């Protein structure tokens, strides 16, 4: 039985989406030319990956002569929210607080980041 496609973006898919998010659209050749990577993927890899992204609902295409022009259907914020929800569900028993605690305990946050967190927490407490 074939492996089920992950609803979230793989690393390669994300690189292609970053191009589409920054440019607004692109043909396979345009996306390939804009990919920032030490080793550029093959044309066929980009073409196949864009088809997979379309099947997953991340992009749509319109025919442009013999080429397809791909457009993002999901913005960066929606994609990051979906990926974060998956991480919270898989690794933190569905608890966003557990994720936040893990980040605070295990990552070195700058003074500015800590100040921003304090402000966000204060706002969240006031809105309750």
Helix percentage range:
55-70%
- Radius of gyration over C-alpha positions, nearest whole angstrom: 19 Å
Name the CATH superfamily assignment of the largest domain.
Answer: Winged helix-like DNA-binding domain superfamily/Winged helix DNA-binding domain
State the helix count.
6
Number of strands: 2
Q: In the CATH classification, which architecture of the largest domain applies? A: Orthogonal Bundle
Task: Give the neighbour order of strands across the main sheet.
Answer: 1-2
CATH C-level class of the largest domain is Mainly Alpha
Mind summarizing the main beta sheet? Answer: 2 strands, antiparallel
Straight-line distance between termini = 48 Å
Q: Could you tell me the mean pLDDT?
A: 91
CATH topology of the largest domain: Arc Repressor Mutant, subunit A
**Helix/strand/pairing category:** mainly alpha
How much of the polypeptide forms β-strand, as a percent range?
A: 5-15%
Number of domains: 2
Label the overall shape.
elongated
**H and E order:** HHHEEHHH
Brief summary of the model shown:
With 128 residues, the chain is mostly helical. It folds into two domains: 1-91, Winged helix-like DNA-binding domain superfamily/Winged helix DNA-binding domain (Arc Repressor Mutant, subunit A, Orthogonal Bundle), CATH 1.10.10.10; 94-128, no CATH class. Helices cover 61% and strands 9% of the residues.
Structural commentary:
The N and C termini lie far apart (48 Å). This protein is elongated. Helix 2 crosses helix 3. A two-stranded antiparallel ribbon has the order 1-2. The mean pLDDT is 91. The protein has 128 residues and is mainly alpha-helical. It has two domains: 91 residues, Winged helix-like DNA-binding domain superfamily/Winged helix DNA-binding domain (Arc Repressor Mutant, subunit A), CATH 1.10.10; 35 residues, no CATH class.
